[in-house]
Write a structure and sequence with these properties.
With 344 residues, this protein is an alpha+beta fold. The protein folds into 2 domains: 2-90; 113-341, BirA Bifunctional Protein, domain 2 (2-Layer Sandwich). The chain is 40% helix and 19% strand. The chain has helices spanning 2-18, 22-33, 38-44, 53-90, 109-123, 137-140, 173-182, 224-239, 292-297, 314-322, 335-338, and strands at 127-128, 134-136, 159-160, 165-167, 188-197, 209-219, 245-252, 255-264, 281-290, 306-313. A hairpin with a 2-residue loop joins strand 7 (245-252) and strand 8 (255-264).
Length: 344
């Protein structure tokens, strides 16, 4: 029995050392150490041994098993390392090759305009106020001097969810909310950027969803000259130091008096062209002095304080600033269009 064990061990060690791959090594493991392997078969024959031989043979069997298991482990590690080395050699990386350029994104032109406008107005002492896009009719219309039966509501065809809840048609509700929160305290000096929604047919100059920036100032002694000075400073920082503005009488329910604000045509500089219809001016926003009734409903005494408000469409500012002809470019996610605004 001992001779058979030694002979099997020697044969197994030689075959393990010559195993060419992991599969062949696994086959040898099953042949010698498996449930039906040669070592197991020898163990089954121990019953025929004398009582004196069994301990000696049993110890030898354990030594052989340990020796073979160690040999299998060493050979497996060597074969696995050989496989890894071959793989590394076949997949060698040339570190001298130049890297592949990774395309980077860029800030969307609308976000650029919003960010620039925020920087300008923050520099003028304004705070930024943001609010819900799903708004109450009370804040969207009634607090802005637009009661239920007011004909001016027809100017803004709205997306109603219920009779009292709608998608906001402008960011002006934040003006009312802010004044109420202030509880009659001054000064109030905010801008309200955000998305707004109106029933409209999408075309080159209109969209059912667009972006507005509205502003509000309330304090003692606020006049139309303060409004004009604020807007002139904004326009010159946005479009250039030589820009000019003009105010034309208009009507908005929440301001009195109300004005439309024009800038000199960005294409012709005011000399007249197709873009400005030969007038030299292009409308960019609406503004006016806050209506006394709006101040009263928000808890302010119109005899003691006054204010001005303005509202502009971010898309219109971007169209003029970057010379874009179709508002739909802002929403189609065409990479060719967006690449033009890469910071690099």
């Amino acid at each position: 029995m001992q001779d058979r064990l030694n002979t099997m061990k020697q044969a197994a060690l030689e075959q393990i050392a010559q195993a060419a791959d992991l599969q062949q090594l696994q086959d040898l493991r099953v042949k010698y150490l498996g449930k039906k392997g040669e070592l197991t078969e020898l163990l089954r024959g121990m019953g025929s041994l004398s009582a004196e031989e069994r301990p000696v043979v049993g110890q030898l069997v354990n030594e052989v098993r340990q020796t073979l298991e160690a040999a299998f482990a060493d050979r497996q590690a060597a074969l696995e390392q050989a496989v890894l080395n071959a793989k590394l050699a076949s997949q060698k990386i040339d570190v001298t090759l130049p890297g592949r350029p990774m395309p980077t994104g860029s800030m969307h032109p609308l976000n650029r305009v919003i960010e620039q406008a925020e920087d300008i107005f923050i520099g003028l002492g304004f705070d930024i106020a943001e609010g819900p896009e799903v708004e109450l009719d009370y804040f969207n219309f009634e607090m802005l001097n637009l009661p239920k039966d007011h004909p001016a509501r027809d100017m803004q065809d709205s997306f109603y969810i219920t009779e009292e809840i709608l998608l906001r048609t402008h960011t002006s509700p934040m003006q009312a909310r802010t004044m109420l929160k202030k509880e009659g305290k001054t000064p109030v000096k905010i801008i309200c950027p955000g998305k707004v929604y109106r029933r409209d047919d999408d075309d080159a100059t209109h969209s059912h969803q667009f972006t507005q920036i509205e502003g509000l100032v309330v304090d003692k002694g606020i006049s139309m000259s303060d409004l004009k000075g604020t807007l002139l400073s904004f326009v010159r920082q946005m479009f250039g130091e030589n820009q000019q503005i003009r105010l034309r009488p208009s009507f908005f329910p929440f301001t009195e008096p109300s004005v439309e604000v024009d800038i000199q045509c960005v294409m012709c500089g005011g000399s007249g062209c197709r873009m400005c219809k030969e007038t030299g001016w292009i409308e960019i926003l609406g503004a006016g002095m806050v209506h006394p009734r709006v101040l009263s409903m928000a808890g302010y005494n119109p005899e003691e304080v006054s204010g001005f408000a303005f509202g502009m469409g971010v898309e219109r500012i971007a169209l003029l600033k970057y010379g874009i002809e179709d508002i739909r470019h802002f929403y189609t996610n065409d990479v060719r269009f967006l690449r033009q605004f890469n910071r690099a």
